[in-house]
Amino acid sequence: MQVLPPKELSAYIKHYLFLENNNSTSQQLRFFSDGNTGIVFSQKSKLISGLSNSETQNYLPGSFLYGQPDGFKNIYSDNGMLIVIVVFQPNGINQLLGISGSAFRDAIITIDAVLGSKGLELEEKLAEQATIQGRLRLLNQFFKRIEAKKPKTSQLITNASLDFILKNNGQLTISQLVTYTGYTERHIERKFTEGVGLNPKQFANIIKLHHFLGLLKNKTDTTSLTSLSYEAGFSDQSHLIREFKKHTGITPREYLYHTEKLTNNFIETFPKNTL
């Protein structure tokens, strides 16, 4: 379930996600970038980041912040899930918490390392709530208190760049972005990377991929993958498949027909012999 934040938090938080699955069998999940960062609260059982050669399970913290990922990540759940995710705007964590996006790149940080004892207190209180409404109330109260105390920062260049990239579904050149903002490429890249954790070109590629996912979701039986790849701004189907696999580890057809979508970028994958 996806829920929007109140208006006063919408500049920082894109939406909240509430994911629950009572499946008692082991699940292989895959997460890949959608251009946003977030905070995860895993309330039923801890997620597993992978298995080592000695079969030791590497448990993720019960709550953690994640930065812009490099590629896809495999995650496992062996006892059902009850997950709350605060999905921030691309530069939302930088604006709200003052964390540099570039320093936060491809990182998982325990909630207390950033929010201290108040973060752990929030984790405990969320676990005590039996309803989504109760969890929403706690989350909104928590982030409103942070927003009220945060120092004012200028995000003019980053916000203008984000607006232009999103408006064009990632189909643009850096020279067009320079013309639109009126700033130099170097200045844009420095500000953008600090706020978002990716440079403008990297972010645009992710937005283009997710624009394709939107087209794929509404694909009819008569629509070819080739035509969708052109519409999304890829030079041909081979280019699309290459970029798609780089970000997700699977092909568009595997994504469409052989995964269970928890969200667009958080999916359950199945063994190869079932594909």
UniProtKB/TrEMBL annotation:
<dbReference type="InterPro" id="IPR050204">
    <property type="entry name" value="AraC_XylS_family_regulators"/>
</dbReference>
<protein>
    <submittedName>
        <fullName>AraC family transcriptional regulator</fullName>
    </submittedName>
</protein>
<dbReference type="InterPro" id="IPR046532">
    <property type="entry name" value="DUF6597"/>
</dbReference>
<keyword id="KW-0805">Transcription regulation</keyword>
<feature type="domain" description="HTH araC/xylS-type">
    <location>
        <begin position="159"/>
        <end position="258"/>
    </location>
</feature>
<keyword id="KW-0804">Transcription</keyword>
<dbReference type="GO" id="GO:0043565">
    <property type="term" value="F:sequence-specific DNA binding"/>
</dbReference>
<dbReference type="Pfam" id="PF20240">
    <property type="entry name" value="DUF6597"/>
</dbReference>
<dbReference type="Pfam" id="PF12833">
    <property type="entry name" value="HTH_18"/>
</dbReference>
<dbReference type="InterPro" id="IPR018060">
    <property type="entry name" value="HTH_AraC"/>
</dbReference>
<dbReference type="GO" id="GO:0003700">
    <property type="term" value="F:DNA-binding transcription factor activity"/>
</dbReference>
<keyword id="KW-0238">DNA-binding</keyword>
<dbReference type="InterPro" id="IPR009057">
    <property type="entry name" value="Homeodomain-like_sf"/>
</dbReference>
